[in-house]
């Protein structure tokens, strides 16, 4: 066996160090989700001041820029961490978060907001570094449990982020204390400062409690791969996996699912915030934040409580298409919410979305891991390809949603504000149909292999 197959634990990971990694990952998701409840309103305000009418397009651009920056710079931060260590890279990311969260809250033009969002994504592109840290300090027996920290932080961050973004938006209109302050001029600064404060707390905690996991003796000098080469390698590996039998089917299904799911990130608030007379719900930032918090909580319950019994009862090969159909149904029904029954109907709809997504994520990962082992393909390459393809889908999804919304919202049914959500449902249907082609090897054969 090679040294890579027999890793030597160099640092004993304390509870405090693992807590820092949890915070880093959670802040990554808070950074993604905190803008969801108020982004549409911020864009509307800035667009009106600049005489811009393509609100949906700009919402999609701002959502996409964050994911695009993460996709482009994750290989860079991974390379840097291999050379200078994990700790300084993670701390650089936390500093960047603090600065660019504040910059976004103070943006007074769409271009400044776009730049701030992109730069926040650049410095939040170190999730792979957090995973590498866990790999440095964990034995094979510890790896699965400790990687579960990442999953838990994802779910919690996606719950907390939209909630903070919604509850702290436009404070001057809600609390007298904030009247005639900077928060009246910049109504979305407070949630951004709250996220920045959390990032700063994590930075201080990391300074005192996060040891370096990669000793100098194991750091790479120069592997000869620059940034462009790393991006090219990631893309080529992803393309090769998209042509690799059952592996390719699972990755294609994952890409379609994430594409359909993230279209919703751009258009959901465009719909709920739209005036009731135009077919929307007239929701404000706080109401939107609570809706996404429900999605996050339901997702956590699904993955923490329901997924085990469901997997044992139905098996992953049946759960995958079911999860696509459940999620697609929920997404397609969003714009049919009736104003008089909005709370009850929207609750049912978002529960469908959350449960479907909560089933899909662990089920697809389980199938991908099992299939990779069956076909003797390096798991790191497979997971890397899946992450690259998923990142690409997260880039395309919000942008597509924003474009479709912009060109259909003012037209007549069926090409109106319903169209973006219909597209989500259609994409999910294709994902479900494609997932039926995935071949699963019986357990007794797997046990013999």
Keyword list:
mainly alpha; Growth Hormone, Chain: A; single chain; 449 residues
Could you outline the blueprint of secondary structure elements for this entry?
Elements: H1 15-33, H2 39-50, H3 55-84, H4 86-105, H5 110-123, H6 127-137, H7 140-167, H8 182-185, H9 189-209, H10 227-241, H11 245-272, H12 285-314, H13 316-333, H14 342-374, H15 379-408, H16 419-435, H17 443-448
What does this structure look like?
It is a single chain. The chain is mostly helical. It has two domains: 13-212, MFS general substrate transporter like domains (Growth Hormone, Chain: A, Up-down Bundle); 232-449, MFS general substrate transporter like domains (Growth Hormone, Chain: A). The protein contains 17 helices and no strands. Helix 4 runs antiparallel to helix 6. The longest helix has 33 residues, at 342-374. The radius of gyration is 22 Å and the shape is globular.
Summarize the structure.
This protein is mainly α and 449 residues long.
Q: What is the CATH domain class of the largest domain?
A: Mainly Alpha
Oligomeric state? single chain
> How many distinct folded domains?
2
Distance between the termini: 19 Å
| Strand segment tally | 0
Helix content: over 70%
Q: What is the CATH-assigned architecture of the largest domain?
A: Up-down Bundle
CATH topology of the largest domain: Growth Hormone, Chain: A
Mean pLDDT: 82
Quickly give the structural class: mainly alpha
Low-confidence stretches: 1-10, 443-449
The gyration radius over C-alpha positions equals 22 Å
**Overall shape:** globular
Largest sheet descriptor = none
CATH superfamily of the largest domain: MFS general substrate transporter like domains
The count of helical stretches stands at 17
Give, in order, the helices and strands.
HHHHHHHHHHHHHHHHH
Percent strand: under 5%
